[in-house]
Amino acid sequence: MEGKAPVATLLAIDDDPDIRKVLKANLELHGFALLTADSLAAARVLLADQRPDLVLLDLMLPDGDGLEFCCTLKSRYPNLPVIMLSAKDKVSDKVIGFELGADDYMVKPFETSELLARIRARLRAAPSALQVSVLTAGELTIDLRNESVTVRGTEVSLTPKEFQVLACLAENRNNLVSREEIRRRLWGDSQLYSWSRVIDVHIQHLRRKIEADPTAPRYIVTVPGRGYRFEG
């Protein structure tokens, strides 16, 4: 890769030196630059003066909880993709990770080829500096860069996943977005939510927060049997 700019710069936070070594060798082979940290303290030092394009985050670290750190990262850097890496494979662990803002979740041990595919998918989905950063519709304003929403000038408190669902719909305003498309873009795991109505629940919560009358929504309209459409 000498003489070529890296495809993207990644930060791997993992206390296992063997995993860091394998990640570095494989990711750099495919054109990525990789920063590594063996603790949350080391990660904070790196993040103080460098801005990776994506973070690979272990959940169990010697000086803190990766879940809490993910929540902190997302509140400070809303558009920074985070892929959690964990030996925990229960659905409940994955649900918690996604609800705290993770963009994807991989169970150790994993195949490098699958990790590469998920990294590339997350980078493609990440907001570009060229994209419109503020969307307005009626009395609703959505700031994509800062992940904030205001209704009639008053800021509305959304969870990270609620904001991502709203942004997904608003970026495709006046067009149908299927439940499958929302799931694939925001949750990544093809099995995790196939049995649940979690997307519909998030929509209900959003309507309560942004609609003047949630029973007769102005912005988030249901397309029966197909999905949702943001009108604005």
What is the N-to-C succession of helices and strands?
Answer: EHEHEEEHEHEHEEEEHEHHEE
Shape: elongated
Q: What does the radius of gyration come to?
A: 18 Å
Q: What is the name of the CATH superfamily of the largest domain?
A: Response regulator
Strand arrangement within the widest β-sheet reads 2-1-3-6-7
CATH class annotation of the largest domain: Alpha Beta
Query: Roughly how many Å apart are the termini?
Result: 46 Å
Number of domains: 2
* Total count of helical runs of at least 4 residues: 8
User: In the CATH classification, which architecture of the largest domain applies?
Assistant: 3-Layer(aba) Sandwich
Descriptive notes:
The protein is α/β, with parallel strands linked by helices. The chain folds into 2 domains: 9-125, Response regulator (Rossmann fold), CATH 3.40.50.2300; 134-230, Winged helix-like DNA-binding domain superfamily/Winged helix DNA-binding domain (Arc Repressor Mutant, subunit A, Orthogonal Bundle). Helices cover 38% and strands 23% of the residues. It is built from 8 helices and 14 strands. The strands form 4 sheets. A 5-stranded parallel beta sheet has the order 2-1-3-6-7, with helices on both faces. It has a 4-stranded antiparallel beta sheet with strand order 8-9-10-11, with helices on one face. The longest helix is centred in the middle third of the chain and has 14 residues, at 112-125. The radius of gyration is 18 Å and the shape is elongated. The mean pLDDT is 85.
